[in-house]
Amino acid sequence: MPVYQDGLRGSGGIATIEVMTDRISRRRLVLSALAASRLAAASAKGAAFHSDWQRFPDPSTELPVYRLTDPDWSSTLPAHYNRAISRNSAWMVFCCDRQGSPQAFRMDLKTGETRQLTEAGGLDGASLTLTADNRTLCYFAGRTLYATTLATLRERPLYEVPEGWERTPGMSIEPDGTDALFIERRGEQWRLRAAPLVRAAARTIVEAPFAISDPVARPLRAQILYRQGNAWTTYSPSDANANGLWLVNSDGQQNRRLKLADGNLGPANWAPDGKTVLYLNLPADTRQLNAIREYTPDANTDALVVKTSQFIHFGFNRNTSVFVGASRNQASPNVLLQLRITGSELVLCEHKASRPETVAPMFSPDAQRIYFQSDRTGKPALYCMHLERLVEKIEAEGG
Predict the structure, then answer these.
(1) Alpha carbon 132 to chain centroid distance?
(2) 21 is a domain residue
């Protein structure tokens, strides 16, 4: 039997090649489709990822530091006044663009495993916040406010910014979980808005002819604190408007500016019991030390708590007895612990962030960990340090 140049026997060789080529092409298409579907599934809401944790000794203190996220992508914490860690300190939420766009993720703080919680366009990572019962995650994506049930990852839209208005940075949830608070702007007009987390109409609480930002409800009181000037996340040392805090009742009554110490205003937040506002005072004379101060609204008094080694951001434990701060000192870009009662400081590690005001250090609810962010190795990543030997444990609030 003759052998043809195509290597196939018989006169049907060419036809056989065409059939086989067609089968191979279809097989490749099927495999490509399967690969694409698997890739899509991997990027979808609910996808799980293994731990990226890496432990290393800090160069200056040799204390162990944990890098929780890979700096190949950007990972950031929510706004410093928002609830990012569960009440039992077992897991946290954060924003990450590992799948190509910023999305919300949940990290198990025992294993390091993460799970994607959202698949939304234009998600604002600073707006992420848990409700007090740990069951719901709220956030803005584009012009829409969403609530996602964590058990099912079912999301529902709550509110959409009206045409002609734009939302400015800063959003929080009232402690009782009734309303989301945020700022909208139209031209030179700003307004503080409240949108219920159940089906009801949003309302305007107060309007202002100047920039306002960072609304935070007062615990155990029907009042809201907000900032005059741009949001702290956009802070610039030359921002002359970053100098005021205002307090207004939830019904819009008794809107007043608080009488704070002279100087620029750093980050501010309510003490957990709602009795005072703790804030960072930045003196106009940069040779003076930045200080943590405390304002008591009911008595209309302002008092020095402690001077710092040039903190530019800070957090505190639940009884405000210990502070954690990020220094803006270029020669010593450190994260430090500071005792309220003595003012003594302890260097924990270097943060080496290009913008120290973004480090945003925070305590876990049980005060046994601190978390912060830094772009020290490229893109922003999240870091953790253990404090069991340094800070007294605070019992968990619940699940």
Answers:
(1) 16
(2) no
Which pLDDT score, from 0 to 100, does residue 242 have? 57
Query: 3-60: per-residue pLDDT in tens?
Result: 333 333 334 443 443 434 444 444 444 444 434 433 444 458 999 999 999 999 999 9
Judge contact between 46 and 115, C-beta under 8 A. yes
In DSSP terms, which residues pair with 325 in a beta bridge? Answer: 314, 336
Nearest 5°: the CA angle 246, 248, 249 is 160
User: Is residue 230 in a domain?
Assistant: yes
Residue 213: which CATH number?
A: 2.120.10.30
Distances (CA, A) of 336 to 96, 174, 309: 26, 30, 9
Element (H, E) at 323: strand 322-327
Q: What's the rounded Cα separation, in Å, for the pair 37 and 42? A: 9
CA dihedral defined by 178, 108, 96, 224, rounded to 10 degrees? 20
3-class SS of residue 151: coil
The residue among 391, 397, 383, 390 whose CA lies nearest residue 56 is 383
Backbone angles phi, psi at 215, to 5 degrees: -75, 135
Q: Where are the alpha helices (DSSP H) in 9-153?
A: 13-42
Average pLDDT score over residue span 81-109: 97
| Both structure tokens of 194 | 């409240």
Residue 23 phi, psi dihedral angles, 5° rounding: -65, -40
Which residue from 242, 224, 239 is spatially nearest to 182, judged by alpha carbons?
A: 224
Report the b/e string of 40-62 with b at 16+ CB within 10 A.
eeeeebebebeebeeeeebeebe
Q: Hey, how many other C-beta atoms are within 10 angstroms of the C-beta on 288?
A: 13
Entry pTM: 0.86
- Other CB atoms within 10 Å distance of the CB of residue 112: 17
Enumerate the β-bridge partners of residue 374.
381
Whether 185 is covered by a domain: the verdict is yes
- As a whole-number percent, the residues of the chain with pLDDT over 90 amount to 79
Number of domains in the chain: 1
Amino acid at 182: F
How far is it, in rounded angstroms, from Cα 57 to Cα 350? Answer: 11
Residue 149 lies in a domain: no
Distance of CA 57 to the CA centre of its chain: 25
pLDDT in tens, 213-264: 999 999 999 999 999 988 777 666 555 555 799 999 999 999 999 999 999 9
Domain range holding 196?
A: 161-263
